[in-house]
Amino acid sequence: MAEDKAGNIWFTMKNGICRYDGKTFTEYTAKDGLGGTEFWGILIEQSGIIWITARGATTRFDPSVPLPNPKAFTVFTPADGLNCCVQSMYQDKSGNVWWGTGQGSYRFDGKRFYQVKSRTNEKTIYPYLIPLFFCLLAGKNGLIPQRKYDFLERKLRRRE
Hints:
Blueprint: E1 2-3, E2 9-13, E3 16-20, E4 25-29, E5 37-44, E6 50-55, E7 57-61, E8 73-76, E9 86-91, E10 97-101, E11 104-108, E12 113-116, E13 126-129, E14 135-139, E15 142-150, E16 155-158
Antiparallel strand pairs: 1-2, 2-3, 3-4, 5-6, 6-7, 7-8, 9-10, 10-11, 11-12, 13-14, 14-15, 15-16
């Protein structure tokens, strides 16, 4: 669940998302433009853009675009760089949006997703994004030291 600046409560449902404005529930589904199935994650950016994660797709929804209008929804599939089910989403203080998946951490540059490379011996990294702009990474052998993101190299670096 998430709350937008107007006080609306947004939440996921099996077949889409729902907005509650204090009086009325409004549902949005694949018929409106959402991608994927089995919706489970929602994040509202500081700008008001809403990200919805689902099996098979991640959707960017601009609620300021009146519906019906296909420009309100942008659906991203594995072809756009995010190739695994999203487990967590977070927007940092700088406005960057991060995704944690079973395949690692990702960042969106405005057009596509880029995987954040880690310098570790772990083969599988499970990211859990926490609201500090730092990532807590857990591997098969336990926790990996906190890292910070190097935006120029698109890689995680040891926190100094």
